[in-house]
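Recall the central idea of this unit: under ordinary conditions, the amino acid sequence of a chain determines the structure it adopts. In this exercise we apply that idea directly, starting from the sequence alone.
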Amino acid sequence: MEGSFSPQSPAQPAGSSPQSPTGGILSSAAGGPPAPLASVGKRLGGLLLDTALAIITLGIGWLIWLLIVMGRGQTPAKQLLHMRVVSIDDGKVASWGKMFVREFPAKIVIGFLAALTIYIIYLWPLWDDKNQELWDKMVGTVVVDDPQDVLDPRTAAA
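Accordingly, the structure predicted from this sequence is:
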């Protein structure tokens, strides 16, 4: 199911959206076209690509790359696949700190929980209306497609 994302506004009750049953739209900082939610398949591809990149670079190159792009709401694979992590609260690209919490403590906690549930909780995006993994829910983020890099904080400030 294709969807798009809209940050929750105080005037609008949580979970309701006049634009779309799957969450509305997220406009770019420049007022451009909406950014659709990244599909479950694309997110899975990103996970596999991040894993492959970490193995190929012996973890060191991937970690350095990650530390550089986290401030743009990306991981190395998300950068290559033109996806971004955005905050549900305000629709802005996730900060470096929020990305750090999402990528390390939150994913470690979910990893332990996954082992207890025979890894079934990794399938959460299949039934979630915003294609969120549990670590996205923990830190209040969603992953969107950004093929034109309109949400790139480096160009939004210009």
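The two ends are 34 Å apart (CA to CA).
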